[in-house]
Amino acid sequence: MSNEDNKAYIEVKNLKKYFKVGRHATLKAVDDVSFTIKKGETLGLVGESGCGKTTCGRTIMGLYEATSGQVLYDGVDLHSIKGEERRKFARKAQIIFQDPYASLDPRMTVGNIISEGMDIHNIGTKEERQKKVYELLEMVGLNREHASRFPHEFSGGQRQRIGIARALAIDPEFIVCDEPISALDVSIQAQVVNLLIKLQRELGLTYLFIAHDLSMVKHISDRVGVMYLGHLVELAPSEELYANPLHPYTKALMSAIPLPDPNVSKAKKRIILEGDVPSPINPKPGCRFASRCKYAKKECSEVNPELKEVKPGHFAACHLL
Amino acid sequence: MELNEKSFERLSSEEKHSDEIVRPAISYWADAWRRLKKNPIAMISLVVLIISILLAIFGPYLVKYKFDAQDYKVLDNRPSAAHWFGTDNLGRDLWARCWVGARVSLYIGFVGTLIELIIGCIYGGICGYFGGAVDLILMRVIEVLSSIPYLIVVILLLLVLPKGIGTLIFAMCIMGWTGIARLVRGQIMQLKNSEYVMAAQALGSKPMRIIIKHLLPNTLGIIITYMSMDIPAYIFEEAFLSFLGLGVQPPKTSLGALVSTGQGVMTNHPYQLFIPCSIICIIVLAFNVFGDGLTNALDPKQRQ
Amino acid sequence: GCGSSSDGASEQALNLVGYDFKSLDPNKVSDSDSFTSLENIYECLTKEVLKDGKETTELAGAEKIEKSSDGLTYTIHLRKDAKWSDGKPVKASEYEYSWKRLTNPSTGADYMTLLDELNVKGVSEVMAAAEAKKSGAEVDKLVDQIGVQAKDDNTLVVTLAKPTPYFEKALSFRVLAPVREDKVKEQGDAFGADPAKMVYNGPFTVSEYAKGSKIVYKKNDTYWDAKNIKLEKATGHIITETTTLVKMFEGGELDITSAAKDDLSRLKEKAKNGEFQHISGPDAGAYFNYYNVTRGVLKNAKVRKAMSLALDRQQFLDVVYKRCIPSYGLVPDGVNCGSKIYRKEVPQTLKTSVDEAKKLMTEGLKEEGITDPSKVSIDFLLGEQSSITKGIGDYIQKTFEETFGIKIKQDFTADAQTYYKRRTEKDFDMCGGGWTADYNDVSSYFTIFTTGNGNNSGNYSNKEFDSIVKEASAETDENKRIELYKKAEDILINQDPAVMPTYYSDVNTFAKNYVKGYQIPKFGGSYDLSGVSIQGK
Amino acid sequence: MLKYILKRLGIMIVTLWFIATLTFVLINALPGDPIGAKAKKLPAATEQAIRAKYGLDKPASVRYVNYLGDLVKGDLGQSIQWPGKTVNDMIKAELPASARLGLQAVAIGLIVGLPLGVLAAFRRNHWEDYGVIVLSTLGVSIPGFVLAILLQFAFGGKGGIPTVGWNNSAHPFFAAFKYTLLPSIALAFGGIASNARFMKSSVIDVINQDYILTAKAKGVGKASLVFRHILRNAILPVITMLGPRIAGIITGSLIVEQIFAIPGLGRELLNSINYRDYTVIMSLTVFFAALYVVSLLVVDICYALVDPRIKVTGGAK
Amino acid sequence: MTRLLEVKNLKVSYNTYAGKVQSVRGVSFHLNAGETLAIVGESGCGKTVTSKAILGLIQTPPGEISKDSEILLEGKDLLKLPEKEMRNVRGSDISMIFQDPMTSLNPTMTIGKQIAETIVNHRGLDKALAYQEAIKMLKLVNIPNAEARAKQYPHEFSGGMRQRAMIAIALACNPKILLADEPTTALDVTIQAQIMDLIKDLQDKFQTAVVLVTHDLGVVADVADRIQVMYSGLIVERGTVDEIFYNAQHPYTWALLQSVPRLDTKNKAKLYSLNGTPPDLLKPPVGCPFAARCEYAMNICKEAMPEATKMSDSHEVSCWLKHPNAPKVKNPIGGSDDE
Ligand SMILES: Nc1ncnc2c1ncn2[C@@H]1O[C@H](COP(=O)(O)OP(=O)(O)OP(=O)(O)O)[C@@H](O)[C@H]1O
Ligand SMILES: Nc1ncnc2c1ncn2[C@@H]1O[C@H](COP(=O)(O)OP(=O)(O)OP(=O)(O)O)[C@@H](O)[C@H]1O
Ligand SMILES: [Mg+2]
Ligand SMILES: [Mg+2]
Predict the structure, then answer these.
(1) C83-94: per-residue pLDDT in tens?
(2) Residues D185 and D62 in one domain
(3) C-alpha B263, offset from chain centre
(4) Residues belonging to chain C with any Cβ–Cβ distance to chain B shorter than 8 Å
(5) What pLDDT digit, counting tens, does each position of B14-31 carry?
(6) Does residue A286's CB lie within 6 angstroms of at least one atom of ligand 1?
(7) Fewer Cβ atoms within 10 A, N terminus or C terminus of chain C?
């Protein structure tokens, strides 16, 4: 674990990422999001599908240019550096992709996939790279022979582990895990999550863990942020958030978590949300959740609520609080 | 089945895996080749292609006549034991001429396609990958090029440059590459949003590296289909130019030139048209069918 | 297509090959395709007809032509019943207008110099002024003064600068057809482009035309001799492939066709059996290869002669064309010099002799300081690639390479324009070419080889030849003239060869038995339909 | 929508300007000109008069400006080779034949090619599929000019089908029909083959889509499955290729037009190139290019109309 | 109780370039009217293929259904039914909701028409009436503003709405059986809850039997009456919800239940996880397919397939551990051992 526990390692300030999807249409995928991640910490990010989690993660990685706002790594703004410098930055932060099938180039061997980052950054000699590839393969629970194979010969879980090996190859300090488990089935999900936790313990990595499986997020994260339509609506330590959700959306979410226990599950009272998720294209002003919130007041559909610290360490964005 | 004590002993972890079926480590290409081999029709066309290529190389030497040796004693003779494919109006042996012609045609087809492929892939790759203004401008260039009558450009180049097959290929390529550039661009526009491309970006890859290492190899299937149609297209193109008298210059010849000569004497000496035409047909057919098979074999969706 | 409806009475309709005209403006065109149309739709003062196998000049638009005793003034009386297709009478002033328009450089007529060739008074001044780039007004004035005058509606007086033996023959040339000034004024540049807007004074009108597809001639009812025109309609299909023509002829879609190569022998065979008629004979086209006498070894007359001697023309034709007539001279059979046919008077002198050719070549090359013939490479400009030019190239290459051991490089051009350009610029060693006279006189076959002539593509220049040709053009005594041309031809072919004669073109046309009176004029267009009738179809 | 079309038209004008300029440059780079080179050498004064008349005596820059000026006015200029004919006349007289031929060929290509493609897709890896592959490749592996002549010899002059010719007059559609039969078929062959190919792969794509399974699960009948669910979705990619094809087939039919003696524009272009008829080449090129670009636009619009997912404006409502 | 559907010894294989993939290797089960049967299991274990086989949607070739398989719908064997009659079964007796709502609707047909199509096919209504009916169906599945929505194309719908449209199509003709193949995997929990409630409502209304294929145990716990656990083309255990959740007997079921993180587990504690991967269905092992990953595997497991052992009327398990000679094993999730 890191020794400077309280200093923010990554600072996201008023990050916005809009996509232009037509002449007059702007899709506000991430709209004014701010948070920090400490070194060695795991921040979970949950929310409805399409609410902007992936976009947020990729913008933090610098894979998308931010529309506005800052992403500070140790105080350096990622979006202000360009060209070669920026490419070098790739060594600090890496990403594990959502889809283990799409994120591996089908025409490259696993060895090449894993060593690509080292090739790009000219790390080590050929033999050293080879050695590192073998080490990584073993670290993620595969074996050496697998280096000369092609991705299509692997199962989803194995592929996801190749993706993890690729991210680890250039010794990053920070990894964005973009739903690394949602494409896998339960027994393999557990394998991957166990691995991530082990690596964090051993290497002191920092994670941004994106998922919509709330139980899994709770399991792995120190703190959890809840997103809704591009906004961060709640942010709190995981135990606190699950025990005591404040935002109406978070509440609904928590109540809807299906529990693998028929007695509990059938007895449980769910908050059923009315209506559909509005479109993120040209969203109306005001709280994004207002249209589905049964407590919504007039104010909610006019003014966008700020994310405020309601309790120590527990932030929420709602006019009702 | 006999059950005994031993049956219910625990397995050690090695024993568990002892008979787990591990697929043999087989490379992507070997895998594709294996699948191709299982497609009889593709294999037949491959054999036909190889035979055609061999004949184009060695065929003319199987007879004692030179392809341009005239013999006025045997004008327009039908196929016979002496002249397997007959002779033409100047008494030249058609077997030798056909295979010399096939050599030229195949050469034009292969080289033309190769050049076109290189230009088209890079151009299309750049258009597709960068998109935006770069794409807009580069695509206009293609649009302009494909609007100019092909003949004007070919004639112009044939006039300006020294005569020869090189010039001919160059002239054909200069307009031909736009098709493949379009195709590659379309493919790459789709592929560039793939996560593996983004993964490469995240690792700090430069754009050219991404295009060459990731994007182009993944368009291979479609490029091969295109190639299998393009090589014949070049053979035709040359035939068309030969019909207009712009093709290969005598005394050299090509399948196209032979067909266009044969067409003139169709009523009286049909074999002079029929033979070279059949050779073109067979080669083209083989290319097409083989290309079809190859695409199937390379298609990741068909992989197991 | 041809209807099968009229089995009973013979319908006077004909299907044959047609040609695209460049323009129907007689003053502007110079190509044989256009002349085929002009031949049938316009009438000139005289016309050439084939009578008993002989080309004779008959009066047509003229009723009477009076020549003054010094041979310098022609008074031409027009026939009074001649009418245009819009019913207006044909007037002498329309001839005058046409001829002056032809001569005026501002028209840009291809045959601008025609009246100069005919020695019409004042025309050479116009040419000189044009050459000197005089102003338009000045030139117009000179044009106005040339020796062509309409005395009244029916009398045209032409004054010549010197006697011209072939003047009356040349009057049949369709470029000299009358032109209606009112129509030209009305249509301006577009005159001649749209058949529907034209007026016709010949036996037929163009009633329908689709460029590249077909041209339909219809009998002109206002033509003065309309009662003797039997044919009502002729449809010309514009097709370039002779194989297609033959196919359509045999399939009954055409009544008349030409043929080439193997088709020709097949059709000849059938014609012998009486299935249809075979119309054949020599034509006025002479074909030869120009030597560029200013380049390389071809500067040497012996080398040139040697090459001329080496070619076995009959074999050459058998291999390449399977038709035409081998030529050993310059002028084809059937072209007149005065009232006599030149070729009948002057036999051809060149004889193929490979031995002599080899000897001459060795001598010639030695004179040029070359001992190894394989060092010699001759660039043979052939024009566009076609099965014919490819055949010629391959044959000639083989012949000379085998006979002399010299190299022949077949030089094809991408298109006709480049060929003509290179020919005019004399950018070749040897170049295929030919000449067809416009009217029935031998003179033009010779004039093209005079020093500096625009069509003298081989840069040929021989003082003696020049002076003989000049003398002959004004010589009124027929026999003396023939003698002069004989001498000139000997120089051109034998002594100081300018060309390698190869062949004369011929006529090989097949017509269905029911087609009568089909004529192929030697000069100008491809067919004359005025005598055609359908009998017993 | 309107805005989109306007924008496309704007880009189109720039493209056309480029094409016009490039053609101008190319043509002027060709050796030989329409006047200087003829079988018979023209008198110098005649040449000069003709040059002056067509403005060819002026420097290239002046000619370029004049040419563009005329283009803008819609005046495509005068032919040099065919005195008195304007390019506008030519297009008016000859476009109908080319267009009809082209459209008929495209129609035949669709009518024959699409069902073949569908058949091949449904019977994939059966003899029908191989039959279609062989047939379609044979169709394209016989060079167009040979095919045209073979057709002429096989069918011309028989059963009232003329070997060559055209009929523009009289009854515009039916009288001409017999003339169009052979050339349209000759032209259509390439289209049949490529339509069959594209249709096959696109049908295979669609068959494997989940929504086809949904339709089957609904118990939809075979015919309705093919027509309502498969065809509509499979035909989209074919539509995309159609535009350039239509434009291309008009320019591309030069050989067929020549062989069948059809008064069309393709043959005209070939002619004009051979004779260096400057104005005609340039104007026809620009005209063809315009046709091409417009057809691309039309196809894009059609595509958007057929496929509800595509909005030409790109934005949501 | 009436056995609405009975599947007997279903075997499905696919012929591929690589060889014969034995996707389903002898599955037997039944379904009663009005009940919900959940099928759970690793991805690729044959859940979807089983449901497709019931509807007769396996393409042959490449698919192949073994001759001795039977699928009886109220006594008649669907596998022997001619295609024409099968079409009448589809959509009216049995209908199916597919895995992916994004791609399972025809993109070039309006939603209304897609629903109406089934109604025209099976209820013989004319088009206009069927369309009205379709709008009613849309209302029934809680799509607001149904009249306008019916005129829209699938791409104009959100994921949840598309899934509801799919349900509307499936229920349009009041089928006796609804096969729901992972109907909510693509949706997030709040929408998922909505959809599951909807299915439950409709089921109560029409007495529809539901086969729910999913690997979300939470959902299963919520809605299922009976559960069937599949592994590698076989059913390894089946029972009522309570039997499976509280008294599972098969090591695979144990693993499945254990590896799901619970909200009450300790943060970042090691989750239970299975090592290895499922066997290749190209050459399935002769013994128990789970043997290679099973903690308790014995020699016999590799040699022979275990027979099904009846634990109760409704509870069956196929495992050698149930053999009287087998060593006793403690159930790691704390259900009662044996009995
Ligand atoms: N490149 C892009 N162009 C346009 N819109 C995009 C792009 N990428 C994402 N979006 C849109 O931005 C919104 C947020 O997408 P994002 O992928 O970040 O969601 P997510 O929270 O990761 O969802 P999921 O849980 O489904 O992965 C979505 O509406 C999506 O359609
Ligand atoms: N068309 C096909 N061709 C070849 N193999 C197939 C085909 N369809 C399915 N399979 C194979 O059959 C097996 C079972 O597939 P199935 O789709 O039933 O799995 P599933 O249990 O539904 O998995 P998931 O939870 O991922 O949907 C898999 O191994 C799959 O590869
Ligand atoms: Mg995402
Ligand atoms: Mg499935």
Answers:
(1) 999 999 999 999
(2) no
(3) 26
(4) 241, 243, 246-247, 261-263, 266, 315, 318-320, 384-387, 389-391, 393-395, 397-398, 410, 412-415, 418
(5) 666 544 445 555 566 777
(6) no
(7) C
Contacts of D130 in chain B (CB under 8 A): 41
Same domain for D177 and D247? yes
Locate the chain B residue with the closest alpha carbon to D17.
B144
Residue E84 alpha carbon to ligand 2 centre in Å: 26
Q: Which helix (H) or strand (E) holds A215?
A: helix A214-220
CB of A77 less than 8 A from some CB of B: no
Expressed in angstroms and rounded, the spacing between residue E183 Cα and the centre of ligand 4 is 10
Report whether residue A91 contacts ligand 1, using a CB cutoff of 6 Å.
no
Cis status of the peptide bond prior to E61, with omega within 30 of 0: yes
Task: Dig out the tokens for A88 from the structure.
Answer: 């070098």
Please state the atom number of ligand 2 nearest to the C-alpha of residue E215: 25
pLDDT-based confidence at residue E14 (cuts at 50, 70, 90): confident
Domain residue ranges in chain B: 39-59+86-298
Domain spans, chain E: 3-224, 251-322
Answer yes or no: CATH 1.10.3720.10 is held by domain B39-59+86-298.
yes
Q: Which chain B residues are within 8 Å of E294, Cβ to Cβ?
A: 16
Counting other chains too, the contacts that D301-309 makes at CB distance below 8 Å and 24 or more residues apart are D301/D1, D301/D5, D302/D239, D303/D236, D303/D239, D303/D240, D306/D232, D306/D235, D306/D236, D306/D239, D306/E108, D307/D236, D307/E107, D307/E108, D308/E107, D308/E108, D308/E153, D308/E155, D309/E107, D309/E153, D309/E155
Query: D51: domain range?
Result: 2-72
User: Which residue from C320, C394, C418 is facing B251, i.e. has the nearest CB?
Assistant: C394
Q: Tell me whether residue D219 is in a domain.
A: yes
Among C276, C282, C280, C217, which residue's Cα sits nearest to residue C515? Answer: C276
The H or E element spanning position C278 is strand C276-291
pLDDT of residue C219: 94
Q: Is the pLDDT of residue B192 over 70?
A: yes
**Which of E17, E292, E300 faces B16 most closely, judged by CB atoms?**
E292
pLDDT tens per residue across span D276-301: 788 888 888 888 888 888 887 787 77
The pair of structure tokens assigned to C341 is: 């046919």
The CATH number of whichever domain residue D142 belongs to comes to 1.10.3720.10
Question: Do B204 and A88 make contact, defined as CB atoms within 8 angstroms?
Answer: yes
In degrees, rounded to 5, the angle at the alpha carbon of residue D273 between the alpha carbons of residues D270 and D279 is 115
Q: What angle do CA C125, C126, C130 make, to 5 degrees?
A: 115
Q: Which of D210, D216, D232 sits opposite E108 (nearest CB)?
A: D232
Decide if B134 touches A, using CB distance below 8 A: no
Distance CA B139, CA B178 (A): 9
pLDDT digits (tens, 9 = 90+) for A113-137: 999 989 888 888 888 999 999 988 8
User: Among candidates C537, C469, C529, C370, which has minimal Cα distance to C19?
Assistant: C529
Average pLDDT over residues E96-116: 84
What total of structural domains would you count in chain D? 2
Give mean pLDDT, residues C496-510. Answer: 91
Average pLDDT rounded to a whole number, residues C316-331: 89
Mean pLDDT of chain D, nearest integer: 80
Domain E3-224 fold: Rossmann fold (3.40.50)
- Give the one of B68, B245, B266 whose C-beta lies nearest to C385's C-beta: B245
What pLDDT sits at residue C162?
87
Q: Name the burial class of residue C277, with classes exposed (0-12), middle (13-18) and buried (19+) by CB atoms within 10 angstroms of its CB.
A: middle
- At B15 the pLDDT is 63
Contact by Cβ (8 Å): A107, B220: yes
pLDDT on residue D93: 85
pLDDT of D242: 73
Calculate how far, in angstroms, residue A214's C-alpha sits from the geometric centre of ligand 3: 15
CB count within 10 Å of CB C4 equals 8
Centre of ligand 2 from the C-alpha of residue E50, in Å? 9
